[in-house]
Write a structure and sequence with these properties.
With about 160 residues, the protein is an alpha+beta fold. It contains 2 helices and 12 strands. The protein binds dinuclear copper ion. Dinuclear copper ion binds next to loops.
Length: about 160
């Protein structure tokens, strides 16, 4: 085989692999409905987050606030390096989880070890992400970050607790 053919085949293979990854990524996003909207002013989002926390029952686990709420709209901030706050809800209704960040790109990764349910959403600055949470099974969902966001990226954790 001529050298030029090998190079061409290599390029085709890399392109196919990349497209395959993109396809899997887009299917992954469709496991839940995600609606990103433009966010001109992060302070507006932060005020809604404060109102959400004030309307709930706040407990503390270590240094982290855990908000128990009956609200349908949940608010969470992504930042270096945490998801704030942890949220506790009941399984009986549907929710819209609003997430935004003021610093850099993160990826919201929520996973239940008991049910295998999984959500992965890229969180970019200047946008507010509204993630529909429906039919969540009771359990503790670990929240992690799957986009490198700095030295303590691996410590960026949060929790969603779904009660019966
Ligand atoms: Cu946030 Cu990695």
């Amino acid at each position: 085989m001529r050298r030029i053919d090998i190079v061409a085949l290599g390029l085709i293979a890399v392109t196919a692999l990349f497209m395959g990854i993109q396809l899997v990524g887009s299917i992954g996003d469709k496991t839940r409905n995600v609606y990103p909207i433009a966010l001109d002013n992060f302070a507006t989002f932060d005020h809604k987050l404060s109102d959400f926390i004030a309307a709930g029952v706040v407990d503390q686990e270590g240094a982290k606030d855990v908000v128990f709420t009956r609200a349908k709209h949940l608010y969470m901030r992504a930042e270096q390096w945490q998801w704030y706050p942890d949220i506790e809800i009941s399984a009986e209704s549907d929710y819209i989880l609003h997430i935004a960040t003021r610093d850099i790109q993160h990826s919201f990764h929520l996973e239940s070890r008991t049910t295998g349910e999984m959500i992965d959403v890229l969180i970019q600055p200047h946008k507010e992400y509204q993630i529909l949470l429906n039919n969540l099974k009771p359990g503790v969902y670990a929240i992690g970050c799957t986009e490198y966001c700095g030295i303590e990226h691996n410590k960026m954790r949060g929790k969603l607790i779904v009660r019966e």
